[in-house]
Amino acid sequence: MKTRVSLEGFAELEAQLEKMTKATGRAALRRAGISALEPMARLARGLAPEETGDLIESVEVSAKAIGAAADVGKRAFAQVMRDGGTRGEAASALRSARRAAHLGGAAPHVELFMGPEKASSKDEAIKAWVQEFGSADVDPTPYMRPAWDQDKDNMLARLKEDLWFEIATAVERTQARARKTAGLE
Hints:
By secondary structure, this protein is mostly helical. The chain has helices at 11-17, 22-47, 54-58, 68-71, 74-82, 87-100, 122-133, 144-181, and strands spanning 59-66, 109-116.
């Protein structure tokens, strides 16, 4: 089960993101998102059943880039690999496709994830699912949904603070670098 949260009214934030490179913007979004979600992950770990401790240890927070920049070049990479090329050649094809696409415009995006990491086996994945939702034979022992319900408002407040801090810090660094390059410092 995925829960998506869409935040609107961040025109000022997007304007600040557009003042920096996409890589810098993605890094700032990633740091802020992970920082804001980690307390919720700790709460989920605390609510997870302790039978073996594996489930508790598996709850992680991660982020990945999404949107056009994340998708462009994947076909080129796959085609080189299918044609018998090396990973290095495939990576080069991916980068070339992204450069050719002239990816510009929209501010960077990041997809955040908080929950059990990818299971090592099908049985482990089923166990994590059954723990949260139950089955015909097993009563559910939810830990993710209660963590979301208890912490969502605080998490969104943390995210707002962390985003502004990360963006302001990144803009400051970018401007300082530009001044230094221009010989003003």
